[in-house]
Specification:
single chain; alpha+beta; Butyryl-Coa Dehydrogenase, subunit A, domain 1; Butyryl-CoA Dehydrogenase, subunit A, domain 2; Butyryl-CoA Dehydrogenase, subunit A, domain 3; 3 domains; four-stranded mixed beta sheet; four-stranded antiparallel beta sheet; globular
Length: 377
């Protein structure tokens, strides 16, 4: 797709914010395992928490291409902050924007855009990860409300979230049929964080396990219809994959830039590393993978904006970008040698942050299943 002047301006704006407000905090965020509230407030003030929420609901009214660009630039500065924005926008906000009633939109979207509420997405369970259809959380119809009982795992933004899109069965089945989606406010009695995960990477992004113990959810907080929750989940993840692809691209770009800087500055055998053909070839391959990933991400984002099918293209973007990020960050450490293996240099953080992009919002194996299913149908 063509990158018009508007997208160039959006990238410049996001890049400037990332460099001035996010990058100086990245090491601290990683070490303290927390994104400062002041930074979250600045993300909201700059419209990054309401990227594609229409202006009538207090959002920025931007499209998915803009969202992908912004997530990439913020992730380049700090992958934890990038996924915080991505999960809030694509997982916590988009289902309400796309499937919510007008009443639900007016009640929740302004709070999500302003940062008064942070959103999260509760699908996975201890025994239901990639196999979402096997979830056991149950929502019992109690007349005026639903009562939800169950446990959810791997919830990004779980600590900060004031709102969660929760998936539970309203009819007991052996597969995805019977799953419904609910808007659950996390201050509801019975909603409890059981554990905050201690992770290899994206350490500043909170990941939690949550118990829902007889959580009462008003009938008006049902998303779409009963037993349509699997549709909500899969449509949300289709778009969410693009956000994770953009996060992976941002990490890869950060590692690429540092590898180039180091190769030009580091002198060995009387000349810079950048004069060695082996290093030059590595830099060339990094550059090519980044360019290809960016094209895949922008193409799938453009398809989504035009309401054209994009499931295969989003999966391709996520698969390629995440595996490219892992390869590029590994090579960046290699370029930096022993220095790259120490915490004094940022490439080890990029390496740790990159790995999760091959796993969450659908593993690389799941992406291949999605792509193959589209090609062979």
């Amino acid at each position: 797709m063509d990158i018009n002047e508007n997208y160039i301006e959006i990238r410049e704006m996001a890049s400037k914010f990332a460099d001035s407000e996010v990058a100086p905090l990245a090491d601290q965020i990683d070490k303290n395992k927390k994104i400062p509230q002041e930074l979250i407030s600045k993300l909201a003030e700059n419209g990054f928490l309401g990227i594609f929420i229409p202006e009538e609901y207090g959002g920025s009214g931007m499209d998915y291409v803009s969202y992908s660009i912004i997530v990439e630039e913020i992730s380049r500065a700090c992958a934890s902050t990038g996924v915080f924005v991505s999960a809030h926008c694509s997982l916590g906000t988009w289902p309400i924007l796309n499937f919510g009633t007008e009443e639900q939109k007016r009640k929740y979207l302004p709070k999500l855009a302003s940062g008064e509420m942070i959103g999260c997405f509760s699908l996975s369970e201890p025994n239901a990860g990639s196999d979402a259809g096997s979830l056991t959380t149950f929502a019992e119809d109690k007349g005026d409300y639903y009562e939800i009982q169950g446990t959810k795992n791997w919830i990004t933004n779980g600590v900060e979230a004031g709102l969660s899109i929760v998936f539970a069965k309203t009819r007991k089945t052996e597969n995805y049929r019977g799953i419904s989606a609910f808007i659950v406010e996390t201050n509801t009695p019975g909603y409890q964080i059981l554990k905050v995960e201690d992770k290899l990477g994206i350490r500043g992004s909170s990941t939690t396990q949550v118990a829902l113990d007889k959580v009462r959810v008003p009938k008006e907080n049902l998303l779409l219809e009963e037993e349509k929750g699997f549709k909500v989940a899969m449509a949300t993840l289709d778009g969410g994959r693009i956000g994770i692809a953009a996060q992976a691209l941002g990490i890869a770009e950060a590692a690429f830039r540092y590898a180039k800087y180091y190769a030009k500055e580091r002198v060995q055998f009387g000349k810079p590393l950048a004069t060695l053909q082996a290093v030059q070839f590595t830099i060339a391959d990094m550059s090519t993978k980044i360019a290809a990933a960016r094209h895949l991400i922008l193409h799938s984002s453009h398809l989504k904006d035009e309401n054209r099918p994009y499931g295969k293209e989003g999966a391709q973007a996520k698969l390629f970008a995440s595996e490219a990020a892992m390869w590029i960050t590994t090579k960046a450490i290699q370029v930096c040698g022993g220095n790259g293996f120490t915490t004094e240099y940022p490439v080890e953080r990029y390496f740790r942050d990159a790995k999760i992009t091959e796993i969450y919002e659908g593993t690389s194996e799941v992406q291949r299943i999605v792509i193959a299913a589209n090609e062979l149908k």
